[in-house]
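Hi R.,

As promised, here are both runs. First protein below:
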Amino acid sequence: MDSQSAKPRLKWVDTAKGICILLVILYHTTEHIMDLSPALRDMLRATRMPLYYTIAGLFVSIKSPQIFLNKKINRLIIPFCFFILLGNTVGYVKSLIENTDFTYFSPLYYVITGDVAGQFINSPVWFLFSLFDVYLIFMLIEKISSCFCKYQITSKIVLSLLAGFCGIRCNRMGIDLPFFLDSSLTATPFLIFGHIIMSRTDFFKKDYNRLIYLSLSLVMIGIALITASGDIDYRINNFKTSLFHIYFPAFMGVIGILMFTKVIGTIPIITKIGRYSIVFLGTHYLFFKDLRLFFETHISQQQVILIDLLTFSCSVIISMVLCWIFLKTVPYLIAQKDIVYIGNIEKFKQR
């Protein structure tokens, strides 16, 4: 989700982000297609959020805790608050048009009582706060693992699995932690996986035989499609399936999609969408129900797939337009420029 970096951007990573956010939008906007394709629905449930967390871990590193936290506030917490405000604004305008009651949700209230998101117009932004949580957990794991110099990687893996186990136990015991912390614990292994595979291996750095690499990626995606099963909801940390079905299809799908984008590289439009995926995350949910209602009113109810595809396409197009507007008007609020200034801290650290 990070939007700024001193290093050149890797286009294949932006492509992976683009595919990821399009899968999120597809899952949210095509309920009829999901009902008709339970295998696809289960795969998207299992892989779309783990892919986000894994991508976030690919380039994570901590040179200074203060700089690290300030960057994550700029790129996660500030956009989270902005998109909550945007959701409230859209909700208020809709209530005026429809002459209905309006319920205001503050960012703090939302993160403490995340289960009310079904009543909130922009619930997908929960991920931004959850990712901030996972980064904090990563900082703790980094601190603890540094005490085991010879076994740093092993200790990171063990600690991340322990965090995931704690998150799953919260689900099994019916414990809801505030600030999406239970969901964040469950997702920690994915960010650590992305961190280790990128920083400690050459898996995504070398150029392999394209045909073999592409074939393997499709096989792994196929395995994820076949093995995914059960109701999985990371937002409320609800998993009505086995531990195997929570993690195995997720890792297969994540690795397969990342391998696929590594081979393909740039895909026009999709790569650009990935570059600004945070905006698409924070805007696509605002209007899709209205779009679906409009298409259901004007198109035969027998054309459910067409209705879903139009809802999906128009949601993406509206997000594109809003992305262009926000880049021109509020770049500081959508993780494109820093509000919490980093430069002085970096200069201070060099003294």
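And here is the second one, sequence first, then its structure tokens:
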Amino acid sequence: MDQPLLLSPSPGSYVMFLPPDMGCVKYFRKELRHTLKANGFPQNNIAQIELASDEALTNSVSANVSCSCDETIICRWRIQGSKFTLYILDYGSGFSGEEVVPETDPELLKSDKSLCFSTFLNHIKTHQNNKPEVLPYNGTDQKHKNMGKGLKIINAMMDSVKVMFHGEGMVNEAPQGFKVMGSIIALEYDHSKHL
């Protein structure tokens, strides 16, 4: 795999176009670390941002692979003073309209709360089982254990995390009214809040 290039269309603005391959994560992390350092971010904040960003990119690679999609993943970030914002756009389908966790039936909840919880857990297990067991690393499939904790880690590390869906020229937080082509995750961090 060729090393992906970092582009900087304007001061404080960066973008990388990455293949859906885990080998690209180390290049992304290296460039991200370099740009954060160059913009005066403290090392402990850089480590936190790197971990959350790494998890988000891994989720995007996994989403593309789950859909047998080899479309390019776009990572775009902006650094303004103490504020960092990252957008990662992928072409994995995420939860489609048919896969949304069913709402709790109030009557069932009154009669058997454990059955509702069990149904919810089974839905999550089914979703996790559909995730790939192998991910490409420099073009070769490698075993990958998806622990399902990526978003939890990202949320713990960042000030703000937002997941949106894109498709048919539209972007929305809820994938309603259009065919989902992929997701966009937006991460924000302000190192002035973490002194």
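A quick note on the second one: Confidence is low (pLDDT under 50) at residues 95-110, 112-117. Let me know what you think.

Best,
J.
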